[in-house]
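Appendix B, example 12.
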Amino acid sequence: MKIHPNDLALEELYLSLEGEQQTLLLHLVDCPTCRDRFQPLVFRQGTKAKDETSIYEGALDRGQEALETRQAALEVERVAAPGLFVELMSHPPARRNVLLRSRGRFHSWGVFELIIERSLEMGSRDPAASEELALIALQISEHLDFASYGLNLVEDLRARAWAYLANSRRLRSDLRGADEAFEKAEIHLRRGTRDPVERAIQLDLKASLRRDQRLFSEALRLLHRAVTIFLQYGQHHRAGRCLVNMSTVHHSLGTPADAIPLLSRALTLINPEQEPRLLLCTRHNLVDDLATCGRFAEAQAMYRQTRPLYRDFTDSWTQNRRRWVKGKIVRGLGQPGQAESLFLAAREGFIAEGIPYDTALVSLELATLYAEEGRTADLKRLAAEMVPVFSSLHIHREALAALAYLRQAVETESASLDVVSQVAAFVRRAQHDPDLRFEAPGKAGAS
């Protein structure tokens, strides 16, 4: 051929092969030894092939026409999908199930594909709705025309739907259910094209589950594999997202210094137009890790670069964390008064949102600040507020025990800066380890 075949032509070639032939082709793509053996065999057939050129050219022309027709049909489906999605979701679940069983217009690749992506988008905001969407997509997949779309490609998207469903279950703290969903995702991926990018998407999501299960070494191993695959196939944005995920594992491990180079590299890979909030999260996490490591001047410089993004996201979740990290920076730069105002504002915001751990942690930032300045009365007032507020927010029992100990120490005026710092360190660790047990400072230590 004088020109390289397009992606659709290559896809059609692959799908036209039987299972064993597909396996042979995949091996040929990956194995340089077999490619070297294969090339002269093809040339050996050159003379014979010339006699049949006109036959093959006609077949290729017909195949190209079929591919173009199929691509046009897919584009029509994708244009129609948003309207069909809105119509489908306007019905209650029982009626929706009836429509999915009986109405063929919902049985399209466009609708299937759209619902899967909406499932991912909903994951962090509403995990239950995300899981529901993934299940709807899987229901649609049972009615797709495999001859038109290709069973292998349908299996790929089924695998992705199960992976998104698994992630939704993880976010709802159903870790066992998430593991079960990932097992099904892997089964469908093996039945599909075994596309490396689809595999990397699964690895990325599964690493988040392993992080929540406190299997940190495995989480990092899975993410390293995913990053390697994404970069190999030019998926730079996804590789950047994986690096952010890796930095989160280090945050859970209490090693923010190891997260900083990962976040810096992620900033070079993330497409800001594709996912602006991911860019904000990456920059914010980098600011926070720099401040945590005492690199306050660098944190301040990055914070200033990030201010336009902070202004773009006015939601309370973002703004409370912006105030908190800015408080850390100005405190480190010797401005305790401004830090106190920022910590108080963030604390009130977290209480209003009903977020227990962030409320506890920013309160302990205040407690440390008061202890440093010898403000015993303010420390007593803050400690007296902590336990009832956190009891109502259902904070981790051992973290609550640590805060109760701090309150008692403050009341007896035995709460040194070291005691406040040790309690704060325990609460930070307990956020990521529900099995951690608190022991009062001076004893054997938390285990």
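Confidence is low (pLDDT under 50) at residues 41-53, 59-64. The radius of gyration is 28 Å.
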